[in-house]
Amino acid sequence: MNILVTGANGQLGTSLRKASASSADRYIFTDVAELDITDAAAVERMVSDNGVDVIVNCAAYTNVDRAEEQPDIAERLNATAAGILARAAKKAGAVLIHISTDYVFGGGAGNTPRNEDEPMSPTGVYGVTKMHGEQKIEASGCRAIVVRTAWLYSEYGRNFVKTMMELTATRPQLKVVFDQCGTPTYAQDLADALFAIIERRMIDGNEGVYHYSNEGVCSWYDFTKMIAAEAGASSCRIDPCHSDEFPSKVVRPSYSVLDKTKFKRVFCQEIPYWVDSLKKCVANLKNTDQI
Ligand SMILES: NC(=O)C1=CN([C@@H]2O[C@H](COP(=O)(O)OP(=O)(O)OC[C@H]3O[C@@H](n4cnc5c(N)ncnc54)[C@H](OP(=O)(O)O)[C@@H]3O)[C@@H](O)[C@H]2O)C=CC1
Ligand SMILES: Cc1cn([C@H]2C[C@H](O)[C@@H](COP(=O)(O)OP(=O)(O)O[C@H]3O[C@@H](C)C(=O)[C@@H](O)[C@H]3O)O2)c(=O)[nH]c1=O
């Protein structure tokens, strides 16, 4: 099979490169320099010239704060381009694997993990544009597997784990919000899971929306405490704070824990506990001195 990966230099794309290294399938890794996914003609050409069977879209506008000031750019990449990929997939008879986010959900009083059928209720531009992306894919009628994930981190690029390893090593004190709860996801776990779906040919007949994060629940505060403990940053005092004490232009979801029952049932995969995966990533970062 020919598998086109877009946004391949990002966290998930890089992890997928690693996951698929020994596959007999042909993976075509592209980032914006090789394939700008907002360019419909270029996308169609890439798909037809290479006989693409599966597109894995790892490209996105992921700067949540900046999206508030650049809604048009975020919409173009997260929504319009998702529609372009979907239409190209439909025309070629390919399957689109698209990644979405827990930020399509907002707050709400409850603390029940979100399932796939729950109505979307994003509270910021990034979440709105990702919701539009999902809607454009559905409207295209292409065969698609949409995987919503959350709080992605890895050894690569910028992410919360690397930021907090840096801050807890250099600052005497930090305040971190404890009133936003979700589940972190190690990008390598998600990449391995997507790779297994493709490798085991489980893409056909399983179209739909799925949730995937690591197992468990925590606040950003708990996440930071665990990052500091694993990194050995004992000199930084970490205090919990409310969201209004950490000013931001974006209202982030207060509770966006994803229910992964459907993913585990359909794809027969176990999902690692968030603390176990965090330990692996921090150990890698400490060993390779990538921060
Ligand atoms: N990061 C997170 O916490 C979460 C992410 N997700 C979703 O998971 C997916 C992967 O996220 P992640 O790996 O963190 O994303 P990254 O931001 O790490 O990677 C996105 C990649 O897309 C590239 N890109 C930007 N514009 C284009 C374009 N026009 N054409 C092709 N590629 C482009 C980026 O290049 P450049 O860097 O040069 O802009 C970057 O290499 C996304 O769909 C995201 O919305 C979901 C939940 C959490
Ligand atoms: C650095 C810092 C952040 N925070 C808060 C701000 C915010 O509420 C929370 C997380 O900060 P971030 O800026 O990393 O979060 P954010 O960029 O909103 O992360 C999101 O990215 C997108 C792409 C997704 O799809 C989401 O799943 C999620 O991972 O921690 C503190 O409370 N104290 C701090 O010192």
TrEMBL record:
It is an enzyme of class 1 (oxidoreductase). One of its GO terms (molecular function) is dTDP-4-dehydrorhamnose reductase activity. InterPro entries: dTDP_dehydrorham_reduct, NAD(P)-bd_dom_sf, RmlD-like-bd. Residues 1-285 form the RmlD-like substrate binding domain. The keyword Plastid does not apply. GO terms for biological process: dTDP-rhamnose biosynthetic process. Keywords: NADP, Oxidoreductase. The keyword Zinc-finger does not apply. It holds the Pfam family RmlD_sub_bind. Belongs to the dTDP-4-dehydrorhamnose reductase family. Pathway: Carbohydrate biosynthesis; dTDP-L-rhamnose biosynthesis. This is dTDP-4-dehydrorhamnose reductase. It catalyses: dTDP-beta-L-rhamnose + NADP(+) = dTDP-4-dehydro-beta-L-rhamnose + NADPH + H(+). One of its GO terms (cellular component) is cytosol. It comes from Paramuribaculum intestinale. Catalyzes the reduction of dTDP-6-deoxy-L-lyxo-4-hexulose to yield dTDP-L-rhamnose.
